[in-house]
Structure formats: structure tokens, C-alpha cells
Amino acid sequence: MSEITQPRILLIGTGDTKADELKFMQDCIAKAGGKTIMMDISVLGDPPYRPEHDKHAVAAAAQTTIADIAASGDENSAMSLMATGAVNLARDLAAREAIDGVIAIGGTMGTDLALDVAQALPLGLPKLIVSTVAFSHLIPPDRVAADLMMILWAGGLYGLNGTCTAVLSQACGAIVGAAKSATRPRNARPVVAITSLGKSCLRYMVELKPQLEKRGYEVVVFHTTGMGGRAMESIAAQRGFVAVLDLSLQEVANQLTGSVVNSGADRLENAGKAGIPQIVAPGAIDMVDFPAWLSVPTDLAQRPFHAHNRLLASATSRPVDRRRIAMAVADKLSRAKAPVAFVLPTGGVQQWDRAGEALHDPEGLSAFVDAMRSAIQPPVELHEIKDHINSPAFNETVLRIFDRWVEAGIVPAGQTTVAA
């Protein structure tokens, strides 16, 4: 990859209300060694400068006019239409390799649009949002692109000041630096995704990763504590994997039981929609996660409990909830457009559910296993083993299915030799 000496940065914002901030950012990007390409997403007014992509171009990219957008009904509908145009323009610029990075600023309106743009762009193209609601629970996990950077726009409500310029200058330096140094995914070998938690809870990746690498695959392991699963779903939606080993599903359980530690309602769906073969297992699906710095949720107060650290704690879900979770998992898998195998380890689904451990709950495990047996229907394959998910037998079962799919051509063969 040739070195980028003057990265081209797409700068998105409402030029009619944030001209001072955008011009300041343009200067910062220039000082950092970048070149700015301005996209104006104003609706009513005009910026005091000439952007490379004005509001009329954004509207045209949404197959409408700025007059029609302004008359669309309210600010929500207007900005949604502008988001469609901004996405189409940015996607086209990226496809033509006309930009090396994207940065956007906004309050809730601008952030809403910028999240759509970031999600539409390929993994590896640096993308940064300066937002007054960065890190807020207002932003659902399914809106966050896999490699999105965000920074809180402190003091950024109205006009320039020392506080907000400190933030804006950092953001501009960050996006220029990222564009200069970013290494795009090479995909020299077919890529396989694995979902898991840390080795203290789920251990299969310790064996599966090197075994798959020996077979000629690049293996990407995602930490399923909310945003890890979101990243995997985002890349799967862009068909970034040849196979997904989705073996840790507590984010699905979290979403269905109302936990904030989730990856959005489409968790366990994007690989299937994209036609990617999946081997699925219920790793840690018995746990409901919640912030350890909050009180235990009332409906979990009497359940087995484990504090992982000062950020994250877990309790086991009730048997009635596990039956509901099993039905939801089976429904999601039934809609997949590629082969799916579900491995059901009846001996346990995470390290802390063993006898003597904090989350040991045989009644709940039995309820889930029974529900899963009846919920999984062909063409989804059901592979039941009597062992625990952290056993060698589980790894052997997963690899046996994977190897059979490779032999059948369902999963592309690995690349055991890679050209220099």
C-alpha cells in the first residue's frame, strides 16, 4: 500500500449553523497535513463558503431537491432525507477512492446522519464523529459502525470557545493521522469470525483459532460484551467473512431481557441474511449482564450472581426466559440463507455454570436444553453433545462440521500459502 502523504478528508456538517466550527476544522486538517473536502448538509440556510458538495448535491443524491426536503414535513424527515443523500455521496466517493477518511460534527441531528454515513462506508476507511451525544445511551448499538471513532464535543452547542476548539483540534489531528497510517484489511486468506468471551468464561477459541489458521484461514475473534457483537454483525452485513462461528450468544439473551449490554435487535441475523454459513452455539446464553456499578435489577435480585469486575456483572436468567430465548434463537437461524449448524452442549454453556461455581443453575440449563431441542428444526442442523462447552469434545464437534462444509464447498478452502 502506497503511503498517503496528504489524506483527503471528507468533512460533514451543517454549514449554515456551524460555519465557524467547520472552517476551524478545515484549518486544523490543513495544519495536520490533510486536504478537506466539504459536504454541506444544511437544509434551510447556506454556508458562507463554497463546499465541494453542497446541499443541492446531497439532495440530488437522495433523488430529490432541497426545496422538497425543506417542505417534507419537519426537521426529522428533512434530515432523514439528507442522510440518504449523504450516504449515497460518501459511498460513491469511497468506491472511487476519492477520500481517505471522514469526519462529521453535530448534535443529535448531525450525529443521526453521521452514524448512517459511517455505517455505509467500508471497514478500514477511518471515520470519526464529533458529537454532543458521544458515548450516550441515546445511540443504540446497531447504529455504530465496526471501526467508528467518536469524541465528545464538549462545549459545542453554539459557537467557538476554548473548550470546543481543544476537542475539534484533537479530532482533526486524529482523523488525519488515522488516514495516514490506516492499514486496510488485506484478506490474503479467507476470514472466519469467532465470537467469545474471555478465557475465564469461554475457552474454545484457544484451540479453534490455531486449528483454523493451520487450515489456511485468518481468524477474527470478537468479544461479545455488546459492541463486540455489533462489530461482528456490521462486518457480516458487508459479507466480510466466509464463515461465522457464533459460539457466544449472551448478547442475544441480554437484548431479549432488556439489558443495555446488547448488540441490537439484529444480533444473530446479519450473517444469515448475507448468505454466510454459520456454526452456532449457546455460549454464555444463560447470563444477563448489567453494569456492576448499578444495583442488581429487581427481577434478577434472587438469581445466581457473579461480578466480573467493576464494570460488568451477570446473573442467570429465569427458566421461563431461557425458553423464550431458545425460541428467538431458533427463529433467527431459521431465516438464514446459508447452512447453519447448532451445537448444543448439554453439560453447560460457560465456565461459571459448573457445579460449585457462582452461576451454577441446573434447572435453568435443563429448561434451555429442552426448549432448544424442540425449537431447532431442519434445515438447521442440531448437534447435541453431552459435554460442556469448554470441553475438547465441543471443539472437535465444531471442527468436524467446519471440515465437512469445506469438503462440500459450502465454506471456501483455506489459503495455506500466501504470496509475499
Give an overview in words:
With 420 residues, this protein is an alpha/beta fold. Helices cover 38% and strands 18% of the residues. The protein is built from 13 helices and 14 strands. The strands form three sheets. It has a six-stranded parallel beta sheet, with helices on both faces. Strands 2-1-3-4-5 form a five-stranded parallel beta sheet, with helices on both faces. Strand 6 (191-196), helix 7 (204-214) and strand 7 form a beta-alpha-beta unit. It is globular, with a radius of gyration of 24 Å. The two termini are 13 Å apart.
Short description:
This protein is an alpha/beta fold and 420 residues long. Helices cover 38% and strands 18% of the residues. The chain is globular, with a radius of gyration of 24 Å.
Side-by-side strand order of the widest sheet: 7-6-8-9-13-14
Structural class: alpha/beta
Unreliable sequence segments: none
Radius of gyration: 24 Å
Largest sheet: 6 strands, parallel
Euclidean distance between termini CA atoms: 13 Å
Could you give the count of β-strands? 14
Order of helices and strands: EHEHHHEHEEHEHEHEHHEEEEHEHEH
Strand content: 15-25%
Query: In one word, what is the shape?
Result: globular
Helix content: 25-40%
Helical run tally:
13
Query: What number is the mean pLDDT?
Result: 94
